[in-house]
Design brief:
The chain has helices at residues 5-20, 31-61, 83-103, 107-128, 131-145, 153-156, 162-181, 188-204, 215-221, 224-255, 262-269, 271-274, 277-288, 294-301, 310-313, 315-343, 347-355, 360-388, 392-397, 409-419, 423-448, 450-457, and strands at 80-82, 157-159, 206-207. The protein has 458 residues and is mainly alpha-helical. The protein has 2 domains: 81-207, no CATH class; 218-457, Orthogonal Bundle (MetI-like fold), CATH 1.10.3720.
């Protein structure tokens, strides 16, 4: 027994030492960190779906970026060269200069053309001294020789040193003046005209940087048309949302009551909202027509307008028309949101108020409106944002006319982006739309919607 005591004491000592060693703490998150982890997927989705396209629009807005202009069809922070256009023009230019030099009878003309040719060839050779540029140029030449277009932008456009670009362009401009000063001999007049055109095309193939920074924003914030379109959008939004709220609340109160056929009435009320906006706009455009429109005809008979054609041909009539159409179409959506809020109000409150002697008006202002406030705020927020971004209704119904009197900011952005293919300026208007919508959201949440969130916390 005594012989085993040292071994037993050694075992106890190891147990005590192991017990005293600090245990490794498991990785854990506190409540705040866990909350951030739960909303992380939503933040990633917001960045991917919303912020990333907006950042691209902002980047495009910093350039004079136009698809209908070959010199500005790419976003270029520095000078570039269109190798497809340059290689094609330089081939004909070098041959034309060589023919003119060989056929010139006047020694002075021959000497002048030779100097001009050497200057251009010198810059051309300096351009190809860059191995990367030389490789791209050869590939582009092979495609041109095979009658194939250069579809790869990385191959078609190449960055060029700014000093080389400036010197080359200056030499080409001086060459045009030199050719114009020469006196044509015989049939050389047409050759000289071709050379001038080829020099000009070669010069246009060397593209200047179209990065202009915030110049587009400065232009549009000083432009009357932009502010006019923004004012049109605001007027349309305020008036249409106001009437939709009032009428939507009345309809919601009516269809919230129990009566025979309530389900059919509720379904039929939603029909205008279910019709696609473009279809509704085309239908109402026919109804507003001064020649065959029944709405225009009865408005004239009721002396609401002086002439049936006023609804679409005058600024006031056109604005009334798009607001009236939007109220007809979107009021059911507003009533649906408010009806959902009315369904959450307990009927026992109305019964208790009736026992206390409260009439219908008192019940509405003391029970319905206070308890419906959250639903009203949500409905107002959704409809205001939706109305401010209106596009298809105005574009189909009036096209922004007459004389841009109903042109919304979104319609203006569409015309600039796609009709004029001015992506730089159109991106500015898109960013302005985004900033306006973001401002509206902040105002609702900060000053109006704060009660909504505070109410939930309480």
């Amino acid at each position: 027994m005594n012989a085993h005591l040292p071994l037993f004491h050694s075992y106890l000592r190891r147990v005590v030492i192991m017990a005293e060693k600090p245990k490794k703490q498991r990785f854990s998150l506190n409540e705040k960190q866990l909350g951030y982890m739960m909303v992380l997927p939503s933040l990633v989705l917001i960045i991917a779906v919303i912020l990333w396209p907006i950042s691209l629009s902002f980047w495009n807005s910093l350039f004079d970026y136009r698809l209908n202009d070959p010199a500005k069809s790419q976003k270029m922070v520095s000078e570039h060269i269109d190798l497809e256009r340059y290689a094609n023009n330089y081939y004909y230019l070098s041959n034309s200069l060589e023919d003119l030099e060989m056929n010139a009878q006047d020694s002075k003309t021959k000497e002048t053309v030779s100097e001009l040719k050497n200057d251009i060839e010198g810059y051309h050779q300096e351009l190809l001294d860059d191995p990367v540029m030389n490789d791209k140029y050869d590939q582009v030449n092979d495609l041109i020789a095979s009658f194939k277009p250069v579809v790869d932008d990385d191959l078609k456009y190449a960055e060029i040193d700014s000093n080389l670009a400036d010197g080359y362009k200056e030499t080409l401009q001086e060459s045009i003046d030199t050719i114009q000063a020469l006196k044509p001999e015989g049939d050389q007049e047409s050759i000289m005209e071709d050379i001038q055109a080829q020099i000009k095309s070669t010069d246009e193939a060397i593209l200047d940087s179209n990065f202009i920074g915030l110049a587009n924003y400065k232009h549009y914030f000083q432009e009357k048309r932009m502010w006019k379109s923004l004012a049109n959008t605001s007027v349309f939004t305020v008036i249409s949302v106001f009437f939709e709220l009032v009428l939507g609340l009345l309809i919601a109160l009516l269809i919230n009551r129990a009566f025979i056929g309530r389900g059919i009435i509720r379904a039929s009320v939603l029909i205008p909202w279910a019709i696609p906006t473009a279809v509704s706009a085309m239908m109402w455009k026919y109804l507003y027509d001064g020649q065959s429109g029944i709405i225009a005809h009865y408005f004239e008979k009721l002396h609401l307008i002086s002439s049936a054609g006023d609804l679409l041909s005058t600024s006031t009539g056109a604005m009334f028309s798009i607001i009236f159409t939007d109220v007809w179409k979107t009021t059911p959506y507003m009533s649906l949101l408010l009806l959902a809020g009315l369904q959450t109000i307990p009927s026992s409150l109305y019964e208790a108020a009736q026992v206390d002697g409260a009439n219908k008006f008192q019940q509405f202002f003391k029970i319905t409106l206070p308890l419906l406030k959250s639903s009203i705020l949500v409905a107002l927020l959704f409809r205001t944002l939706d109305a401010f971004r209106v596009f298809d209704l105005i574009y189909v119904l009036t096209g922004g006319g007459p004389a841009n009197s109903t042109e919304a900011i979104t319609v203006y952005a569409y015309k600039t982006l796609f009709s004029q293919q001015n992506f730089g300026a159109g991106s500015v208007l898109s960013v302005i739309v985004f900033l306006s919508v973001a401002l509206i959201s902040v105002i609702y949440i900060k000053f109006i919607g704060s009660d909504l969130f505070e109410g939930k916390v309480k």
